[in-house]
Specification:
It contains 7 helices and 9 strands, in the order αααβββαββαβββααβ. The chain is α+β, with helices and mostly antiparallel strands. Strands 1, 2, 3, 4, 5, 6, 7, 8 and 9 form a 9-stranded antiparallel beta sheet that branches. The longest helix has 29 residues. The structure holds calcium ion. The site of calcium ion has 7 residues, from loops.
Amino acid sequence: MENRAQGAFEYILMLSGVLLVVITVVFMLQGTTSNANNTLGQSRSTLDSLITTSVKEAAEGDRPSSCLRLYNRGSKTSGNYTIYPRGLPIQAYCDMTTSGGGWTLVLLNSPYATPPKPGWADATFGNSVTGTFGTDINGAFDQLVGVAYWNAIGNQLRVEVGASPTSISHRAYYSFYINESKNYSLSMTSGTLDVGSTYPAMATYHAANNYQFTTIDSDHDASSSNCASNYGNTPWWYGSCWDGSFWGGGDSGSYQNRPYWTGSGSDYYAWGAIWIR
Ligand SMILES: [Ca+2]
């Protein structure tokens, strides 16, 4: 007992010594000018954010949550990858070149496939693909990555439409958040444009009004009918019903099966995609 008590005492003594050195260093640093303190504060803040990111990445192990994580680990070639948002595997297309790379495709309406028609379970926690999920963004597929994964993939949206991926007519960037407790309502803020001069109605109508997510089997829209069932069974943040849906009329009705940037008139395009980073 005596030896153990003595050991503990020496240990405490050693800890006190270390603490004294730390306190001395802190006081020395505090003794420098306020400019130096500001610099130190900024460095500390940068260091904290780096530690947070690297801790998150380390925690993910070999199951990266997004294309950005893959990009940061050295995957700089666009194509298909497996990502693990919320720890669950998703086949995703990654754009590793546009606007800094690291973009995960979460919605694609290509001219070569009809839109998916997922019910609530697949539109939230599934990964709905129609056509052939290829290694090429020009590939013949449409896709919706479940909205329950979107926050885990990133916090920036890139929305774009055009004749093809290499012929973009409108492109906008937003900060975004999916509110799971409000039936996956979508918030889009701080919009900027880099192609075209109009903001998408996805932001100015659907997100701006906090419309909730509606699927063929789960109606949360502002219409007396189910808007998803009115428009090819495609899920969207319908109001009553849409003003710029990336599925358009789905594959039924008098509307085009195309992404509409604004309104439901003639502002539709052959190709449209939504990306997250
Ligand atoms: Ca399509």
